[in-house]
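Section 5: illustrative case.
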């Protein structure tokens, strides 16, 4: 029966998911991606079987359960009813006690707003955040940088606070995308450009966030560096990465059936499921890593930008995704250079202040090569064309929308001589 198959398959999946979490102790817990809501309402739900089996495993006294408890708590937190959410917080608490740093950070995040109403309590909360950041939780590091950028300095001198943020920016490393072409013998920059341009189209059509898009492209590039992909399966890789990333950060996910439809049914449901598994395996569960968007949010807390300049900043960050040659720069440096470029293009006085230099560790001279590359690649180089000889301008079209004040239509000239 269908119910019997769900039971058998769910128990098998539970065994392998548990094994995967135990073997992958260095990465953030990830198996919740496969069993998160929505669940089937028919009564024979394989996801529900996996959940109950893993929950039973966690109740065993000798079970190493921190990461699995985190996954179960994540699943419950995505349901709408209050009872399940309350249970999820209890699971996060237990997971945190078991040493799961990710659970500790999520608990901090859930308590942050309440702590802000009391200065003493908030200072204590920030010290806790600093502790998580020191233990290597990058989400805590970014949150700490945002807090320091807002002027919440943990009782530190302003200089010490800036140094802390600077360390986070300087620790950012480039993801060398050029090595993609060492692994992908039959691939060139135009083929990658076409794939990313299409993913931007999908993100725009589905109203996915800029973060989702940056995460998706990051997963695509990291996978391409690791495993050869035939040209005929590049689109499958791209859409599978987007399915994974929407599951990771959104309540509204891209379903597998819809993803298959978006490829004009070029691939089957089973092809996409298999590719998702291969991606998560190759990336060792590391789906969410720091992106340009994360550093952009820190910088946006440090400086006050006019709305049009903020939209231009976002526009430049998304345009940077298309160009492989920008891979020599770290996400933090790209975010800083994109901010500087946006401010210069909008003729702002003192585009790179001493505060920005102190908080990022980047001087104006440090950023010049990256700024010039961004300006050339994003606004002046010829745009590749598809097989119909139509220019690929999905990012530009995305930012021609009214919500971005049609910033994509803005004329971009040469850089000011004063920058050089």
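Designed sequence:
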């Amino acid at each position: 029966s269908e119910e019997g198959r769900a039971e058998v398959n769910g128990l098998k999946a539970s065994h392998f998911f548990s094994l995967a979490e135990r073997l992958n102790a260095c990465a953030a817990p990830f198996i919740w991606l496969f069993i998160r809501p929505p669940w089937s309402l028919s009564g024979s739900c394989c996801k529900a079987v996996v959940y109950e089996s893993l929950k039973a495993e966690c109740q065993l006294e000798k079970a190493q359960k921190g990461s699995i408890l985190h996954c179960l708590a994540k699943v419950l937190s995505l349901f709408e009813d209050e009872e399940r959410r309350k249970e999820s917080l209890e699971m996060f608490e237990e997971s945190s006690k078991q040493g799961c740093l990710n659970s500790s950070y999520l608990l901090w995040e859930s308590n942050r707003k309440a702590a802000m109403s009391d200065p003493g309590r908030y200072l204590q909360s920030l010290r806790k955040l600093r502790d998580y950041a020191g233990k290597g939780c990058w989400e805590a590091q970014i949150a700490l940088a945002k807090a320091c950028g807002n002027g919440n300095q943990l009782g530190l001198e302003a200089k010490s606070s800036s140094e802390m943020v600077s360390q986070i920016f300087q620790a950012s490393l480039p993801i060398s995308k050029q090595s993609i072409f060492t692994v992908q013998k039959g691939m060139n920059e135009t083929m990658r450009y076409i794939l990313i341009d299409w993913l931007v189209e999908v993100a725009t059509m589905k109203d996915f966030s800029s973060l989702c898009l940056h995460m998706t492209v990051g997963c695509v590039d990291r996978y391409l560096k690791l495993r050869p992909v035939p040209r005929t399966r590049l689109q499958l890789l791209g859409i599978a990465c987007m399915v994974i990333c929407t599951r990771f950060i959104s309540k509204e996910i891209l379903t597998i059936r819809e993803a298959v439809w978006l490829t004009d049914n070029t691939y089957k449901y089973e092809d996409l499921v298999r590719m998702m598994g291969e991606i998560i395996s190759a990336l060792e569960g590391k789906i969410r890593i720091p992106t340009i968007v994360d550093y952009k949010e820190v910088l946006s807390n440090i400086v006050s930008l006019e709305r049009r300049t903020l939209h231009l900043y976002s526009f430049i960050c998304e345009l940077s995704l298309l160009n492989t040659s920008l891979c020599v720069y770290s996400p933090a440096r790209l975010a800083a250079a994109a901010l500087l470029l946006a401010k210069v293009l909008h003729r702002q006085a003192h585009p790179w202040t001493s505060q920005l230099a102190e908080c990022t560790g980047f001087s104006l001279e440090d950023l010049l090569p990256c700024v010039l590359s961004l300006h050339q690649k994003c606004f002046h180089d010829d745009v590749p064309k598809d097989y119909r000889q139509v220019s690929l301008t999905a990012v530009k079209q995305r930012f021609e929308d009214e919500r971005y004040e049609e910033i994509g239509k803005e004329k971009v000239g040469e850089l000011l001589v004063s920058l050089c």
